[in-house]
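HUMAN: Ready with one sample?

ASSISTANT:
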Amino acid sequence: MKPFKINFNFAKKLFVVGLACILINGSAFAETSEQAESEDGLLNLITQSESPTLIESLPIAIKPVLIPVKKATPLVIGLALGGGAAKGFAHVGVIRALEENGIKAQIVTGTSAGSLVGSLYAYGYTPDQLQQISYQLDELNLADFTFSSNGVIKGNRLQQFVDGQVKNTPLQKLSRKFTAVATDLDSGQSIGFNTGDTGIAVRASCSIPNVFMPVAMNGHRYVDGGLSAPVPVSYARKAGANFVIAVDITAKPKQGSNGFLANFDQTINILSIKLLHEQLKQADIVISPDISQLSSFGFDKKQQAIDLGYKATMAQMPLIKQKISAWQKANS
């Protein structure tokens, strides 16, 4: 056997290769061990956590679903009283019938005679009291005659009468919301008064052209509201009423009218027909007492006018109650 000879160059190379392998494997082993330790530590941290929800579930954003709740709309009854001079006493009978049946208006609007009765009702007078007051009214204690090309009645007495009855209470402080409707003589536009002196507002609303002198206020001249809003339903709506009862006491044009007052009444009725229809179509109920036999200038038939207003309202009472009930159901 030949003796074994060691090649030192070969051995040196082999040693270097082996050392390199050891270093590489050791580094890999160390990284694996560190990773394992890191994972074990994380696992232990999660397992030992006091908040199990971290591993049980993830937080989910939940949006609340809002279900709209329909609120009942309160019933607000408006009473729109139309013009008609002495025929306006019929409004007292209408109010009596409504009150007897538990129907009380929260909002009142009035034109001409309607503003006179309406202001007293808005102040707080009962139907019995209104009837007693109506007996005090006649053309003599309300008329203060004058010689003027603008009218034959000043209107101061009417203003003073109203202010006295309401104890000088301004419009905005009456028991019920109230609007007196007049007409701007220069522009022809209707104007509703709901603040300020009650007497002068009613006076303006009642100032029939060429009979009463126009009422001058703030640089404007105001006359009868019947020329622009014969039955002021729209003003009741503006004031907040969602159920309006209109009272129409305007006389319809008729054939064979003669005499100055009759022709004057006829003229006013003809001029107001279109405006009247525009107002009445906005009402839920229209009460039209049969006042065809009454004169706009006759103060001697007050009780007859009151009775006609009461009768016409009672005749419609079933319909009034039915419509109010239907409105309440639809808005509950």
About this structure: The longest helix spans residues 8-47. Confidence is low (pLDDT under 50) at residues 19-57. The CA atoms of residues 6 and 63 lie 83 Å apart.
